[in-house]
Here is the input.
Amino acid sequence: MTFESPLGWLIVLAALIPLGALAVSVRRGERVDRVLGLRPGSRRPAGIAAALATAVFVLLGAAAAQPGIRTTDRVEVRTRSQVFYVVDMSRSMAASAGPGGRTRLERARAVVARLHAAVPDVPSGLAGLTDRVLPYLFPTVNPAAFDETLARSVQIESPPPQRVSVTATSFGALSSLARDGFFDRAATHRTCVLVTDGETSSYATGDVARALTGDHGCRLVVVRVGSASDRVYDANGRAEAGYAPDPAAAAKAAQVAESAGG
Here is the structure.
């Protein structure tokens, strides 16, 4: 147990004032009893009063000292390994198989949660992907921080892409994973897990491959969610006319994985 303000215990010294007054009163009464030849009264009521007064001041002192319990947990960590989960958060990730069904983003979060739970001793980070890769959480072994970030921060277009485009996602942004300090320098085994529906605008495949297979790159794992029959539904359960699934999405997801040796 620790105390944030140990000097708060000085409040207990204030109990000496009423206790001293009580002791003087008891002795004075006993002296009068002897003078009058009376049988001395019981000290029990005075003792109870003294105990209650002491308890009050002890509790006040404890509260002022701000006690706390400090615990230490030993966690085995693979310090040379790190994982970064990159979740596609473009508008198309709001698509689902039907009105009220699980969206692609909800499925993606479930995939990340399952993979992360399988390797709790590996520092893991989270990022969102549109036409840029935005880090939400840098690699950590704190499961509460990871789960909270996954639930609250990984949302559709949060933040929105930098450029206005029919297809907001660009796999070309994945090159930043190798050059923008996503991983610690001490990590020699780096893995990037991309969870996406595979819908991307055109990009330079070779640039991404060279970045991720270079000295500061990472081993790429691609998990695709969604299908060509998914649609984005509004609050009334109607499919939005402005969205149509990309029939080449599966091939594009496979292409980025294969080009980077993932």
Notes: Residues 12 and 57 are 5 Å apart (CA to CA). Helices lie at 16-36, 44-65, 104-118, 143-152, 176-179, 205-213, 249-259. The first strand starts at residue 2 and ends at 3.
